[in-house]
Design goal:
By secondary structure, the chain is an alpha/beta fold. It has 15 helices and 17 strands. The strands form five sheets. It has a seven-stranded parallel β-sheet with strand order 3-2-1-4-5-9-13, with helices on both faces. Strands 7-6-8 form a three-stranded antiparallel β-sheet, with no helix packed on it. Strands 10-12-14 form a three-stranded mixed β-sheet. The longest helix has 21 residues. The protein is globular, with a radius of gyration of 20 Å.
Amino acid sequence: MRILITGGAGFIGSNLARRLTTEGHEVTVLDNLSPQIHGNSPEQTSPLYASIRGIVRFVHGSVCDESAITECLAGQEAVVHLAAETGTGQSMYEIRRYAEVNVGGTALLLDRLANHPHSVRRVVVASSRAIYGEGKYRDSEGNILYPEARRAEDMRAGRFEPLCPRTGQPLEVMPTDEEARIHPSSIYGITKQNQEQMVMTVCPSIGVEPVALRYQNVYGPGQSLKNPYTGILSIFSTRILNGNPINIFEDGLESRDFVYIDDVVEATRLALTSSGAAGQVFGIGSGVPTDVLTVARTLVSHYGCEVPVQVTGAFRTGDIRHNFADLTRARVLIGFEPRVDFVSGIEGFTCWVREQEVAEDLYERSISEMARKGLYRQ
């Protein structure tokens, strides 16, 4: 197929582009080479960009630029829409930018498809587990609940687990399936929800097959070590290799579903090519929760750098406590099965990181920004 990948020089996009080209697909990449991800001189500072140069048709431009979208859509049979601003915390104060890129860029893409001739048959949109807010929980009587955002007064008192509104007791976390309640707790999550809904609503009306992939926390070799706003594995790695302490939010027992990049690429390839994917929404993860304190200690062990791991009790507005994917639908309809467990994935990731130039640690700057906005609290 001829496939357009928006945001195709990013972490997921560049890996997907390389996979698709090896299978004989003709790939066009549209990317603005954001300095937050690629550095100020992408030709010299971005391994992601370097990895696709010469094997794809590359268009340097924004998903918000109508002329760039028009140019890139010509002749395409499928679109993988990855272009987005990412970062839960940053989204809470760079609201206009996140809305313009994530919502506005998606609206422009769909507007072109709806109002101009094209050959696109399928659009795969990168959604996110962030659209759920908190995941799925069960109370002591077996009732399924979807907790609202946690209260600041509870977290200041060290009560970090979502509580049953009836009994005030902690709830049991469950795997989150695609029918779970959508109630995002950040601007980023809201924009991803809007992206998904627009694609799933517009595409069927214009004869295009939509697919939405709600990615969990994607990691692996090649992810940006420069971006201090997203990706705790990268953030922690940069802190460790600069000899700085790891400051763990809350009590360190908050958990995430870490899914390896190769598994995400395979899921996205299946979404592009499987007949069972058409019109569907899929949660894509490992299906296994890992707490943040375990992540930090594992990284310290792999790097062999004795830096303090400090559980601070601090918290960020918009953060969730737990969420991990129920993979039943993806297994049944497109045959997706994650193959890389966390132990193997961390080994591959840290081996790659040790081969990279140590990135400047910008984490404290990002925390200071959030603190000034009242989004980081101790």
